[in-house]
Design a protein that fits this description.
Layout: H1 9-20, H2 24-30, H3 36-44, H4 48-58, H5 62-66, H6 89-98, H7 110-115, E1 131-132, E2 137-138, E3 188-189, H8 193-206, H9 212-227, H10 240-247, H11 249-258, H12 264-281, H13 285-298, E4 304-307, H14 308-313, H15 321-329, E5 332-335
Parallel strand pairs: 4-5
Antiparallel strand pairs: 1-2, 2-3
Helix pairs in contact: 8-9, 8-12, 9-12, 10-12, 13-15
Length: 340
């Protein structure tokens, strides 16, 4: 059974298990991915020994297997990925908690899941994905039933929302998960062609063949995810979903709770503003930084504290001339990390 184009390693192994009619956990044991930690590391990057073993077991080329892991994005969205073999678990944990990817937090297109029998794409692990190019919809990032973020299960794929166990009690007083079927979510359509164009430019950077303009676009988008405000968006020409999402009081509260990259609509808004600023000012960090400073003053926004770990590990942030200029103007300050 061959993997789908862009499918993640863990999702494909589960599809193989369903095709063979065996338990997923049993197949993971047969492939010597005994623990969740072993699967997590394999999904991140395969050792040559593990790749050979999986290739022999599944009759799939090693090149294809390596392309189904997050190492595919080591040159773009996931810099500073630890080398293999990982003998120091502390280094791996530090990188994993600091690198900009969703980790166990899910992001998905419901129509893709329906058409492909719940096969999950590798790119959905990255917060850079905000729209599905095939179906022209925004990716979902939270359960529409319990409104909580949806996290991947033990095997990096899921059919039901597993959140809310502590908050929801059944009639007998025991905590239970939400269990809402993620494929039943109603997708939010993309109405502006510019959103699709921006996702295509991000994908070109992720896949390793960006133009110089695409690199500038991604660098500025990474900055604006932190700093974008409603006043920066144009009233005409923007996708209404982006405008509503950025102005929503509820989403603003969720951003404080879950982080800037948790909302696909915010990432899409940052990409839209970045594209317009580059068209207006070109790749001039000074002019762009002055514009951002002025707009945030109008919107009464405080100085943004950038975690030093994000600065060190974040994709498209270091080196980044826009960040350096914004630090000089006092819009951004680099602060000590609070992560454990």
């Amino acid at each position: 059974m061959q993997p789908l184009e862009g499918e993640s390693l863990a999702s494909w192994i589960q599809a193989v298990a369903r095709n063979r009619g065996v338990e997923t956990s049993a197949l993971f044991r047969d492939l010597r991915l005994y623990s969740d930690d072993a699967l997590s590391r394999a999904q991140t990057r395969l050792t040559a020994k593990t790749a050979r073993r999986l290739s022999n077991e599944t009759e799939t080329s090693e090149e294809v297997l390596h392309g189904m892991t997050l190492a595919r994005y080591a040159g773009s969205a996931l810099p500073h990925m630890p080398p293999i073999p990982w003998t120091d678990g502390t280094v791996f944990k530090q990188w994993r908690t600091s690198a900009w990817f969703s980790d166990h937090r899910a992001r998905w297109c419901t129509q893709c899941l329906r058409e492909n029998d719940s096969r999950w794409l590798l790119q959905w692990l990255l917060p850079w994905s905000f729209a599905c190019l095939k179906h022209r919809v925004f990716l979902a990032a939270e359960c529409i039933r319990c409104l909580s973020p949806v996290y991947f299960g033990r095997h990096f794929a899921l059919d039901y929302c597993l959140a809310g166990g502590e908050a929801r009690l059944n009639p007998y007083g025991y905590a239970e998960a939400c269990d809402f079927w993620v494929r039943m979510h109603r997708p939010l359509p993309v109405t502006a062609d510019s959103v699709i164009r921006h996702q295509e430019r991000v994908n070109a950077w992720l896949d390793g063949y960006p133009s110089s303009n695409d690199r500038e676009f991604v660098s500025l988008t990474a900055v604006l995810v932190m700093l974008v405000t409603p006043i920066m968006l144009q009233r005409r020409g923007e996708d209404p979903a982006i405008l509503c999402g950025l102005r929503s009081g509820r989403r603003t509260g969720l951003i404080r709770e879950r982080g800037m990259w948790a909302d696909p609509l915010r990432v899409a808004a940052a990409a839209s503003v970045a594209d317009r600023l580059l068209q207006r000012y070109g790749a001039s960090p000074i002019e762009v930084a002055r514009y951002i400073e002025g707009m945030r003053c109008v919107d009464w926004q405080p100085q943004y504290e950038l975690d030093v770990m994000d600065w060190a590990y974040g994709s498209a942030l270091r080196p980044n001339a826009y960040v350096e200029e914004l630090v000089r103007l006092g819009v951004i300050t680099i602060c000590a990390s609070t992560r454990k």
